[in-house]
Write a structure and sequence with these properties.
By secondary structure, this protein is an all-alpha fold. It is built from 16 helices and no strands.
Length: 288
């Protein structure tokens, strides 16, 4: 095709015009839209009100059902951070009042408030939690027991010992774990009895609780917990949960210096498929 300057110029002009149209009707509006969204988000973040613990507590007592239990959940989450826990008397009294009022509320409100009280670490909540262990729904009692274990106050021991006789295995388990956290040596004999509990989880955690107090009565149970072949007999326990259980058992027996345990730790360090298990076994074996 012969060179035609006019044709080339015409084509170039058409392309330029088309480029202007595309730029005007598509690119510029698109960029403006993005800018508008970014501006909105920035302003929203700058002006958004940051909700305080007291704001959530207020919602627990005055909000609708959904807001009440969601706010109680937020409290249980926020108060697990010590830096976020108010220590003033007004907050403590308001929490206690909200918990007492939750007796007739949705169970989730009561459960999350109980957990919030435990996670706060405030010992003023121990008495009110203990008082509310009687005539309580099992689901709520589980949260209360868990919180008493988190607070690690010896005053809760008599109540927790009573729960060891409960028909509900989940509550017995919660009580065993709580007593293990508290670490009162007066509970050793009761925990030894729980080694024979028909529910494996209860027996396992009784052995862990005893081990944490330096008592080797649950050694046979601990040896099983360090054995993946034993744990594989329980289909509901996946590989990751197996590793978690093994690491808990290793940590609980760290100060035993037991030859049988050490032999298993050497095996775990050499052959276990989980690197975290191997690392912990090595640390206990060679670094105490």
């Amino acid at each position: 095709m012969p060179y035609d300057p006019e044709t080339i110029t015409a084509d170039t002009d058409k392309k330029s015009v088309f480029g202007v149209i595309v730029h005007s009707f598509f690119v510029i509006p698109f960029l403006l839209a993005i800018f508008s969204v970014l501006l909105f988000v920035s302003v929203r973040l700058l002006t958004m009100e940051k909700r305080s613990v007291n704001d959530y507590l207020q919602d627990v007592t005055t909000g609708g059902l959904t807001k009440r239990w969601q706010s109680a959940f937020e409290l249980s989450r926020i108060l697990s951070n010590p830096a976020m826990v108010p220590r003033d008397e007004q907050f403590i009294n308001s929490m206690i009042a909200a918990f007492e009022k939750s007796k007739n509320d949705d169970d989730r409100v009561r459960q999350y408030l109980a957990l919030a009280m435990g996670r706060s670490g405030i010992q003023n909540f121990v008495d009110v939690l203990i008082k509310n262990t009687s005539n309580e729904k099992d689901e709520n009692l589980y949260a209360i027991i868990t919180s008493l274990g988190i607070l690690k106050n010896y005053k809760a021991v008599p109540v927790l010992l009573n729960v060891l006789n409960h028909d509900n295995a989940h509550l017995r388990l919660a009580a065993v774990i709580a007593l293990g956290n508290i670490g009162d040596f007066k509970t050793v004999e009761s925990l030894k009895r729980m080694l024979n509990d028909p529910q494996p989880n209860v027996s396992w955690d009784a052995a862990i609780a005893l081990a944490k107090m330096g008592d080797a009565s649950g050694k046979t149970v601990i040896l099983n917990l360090l054995n993946r072949r034993y744990l594989e007999k329980f289909p509901q326990i996946g590989p990751q949960e197996q590793s978690r259980i093994i690491m808990v058992a290793i940590s609980a027996t760290a100060n035993w210096h037991d030859s049988d345990i050490n032999n298993i730790l050497k095996e775990l360090f050499t052959h276990d498929k989980n690197m975290n298990v191997r690392a912990l076994a090595h640390k206990i074996l060679y670094h105490g």
